[in-house]
Task: structure prediction
Amino acid sequence: MESVTASELAGFAVGALLVWATISAPRIDAFISSSQRRSLGMCKRCGDLRMIACSKCKGVGSTKSGGLFGVNILADFYESFGKDESNAPSIPCTRCNAKGRFQCPDCCSQMS
Ligand SMILES: [Zn+2]
Ligand SMILES: [Zn+2]
Result:
């Protein structure tokens, strides 16, 4: 084993290390970028708005009386007579407390 000296071993190790770094560098970059995207990723539920629109009132905060199906019928009825839709009485949305939006449960769970 006299043909293999310490310097040759070191050179081989360095060469192997360089080869390994060259091969694995893109993978490391991909891993880091993916982890960064994950940490910097926007909330899938609210898009980092930290709140989601109420599905009942569509974010308006109030609902028209008459039920879900009666609203459109009343609106069309009033519009057909050239009247404002506001003639239909609106009541505060009971689901979101007339706020029109909720705090995003995903973001709130992270912030708390
Ligand atoms: Zn609502
Ligand atoms: Zn969110």
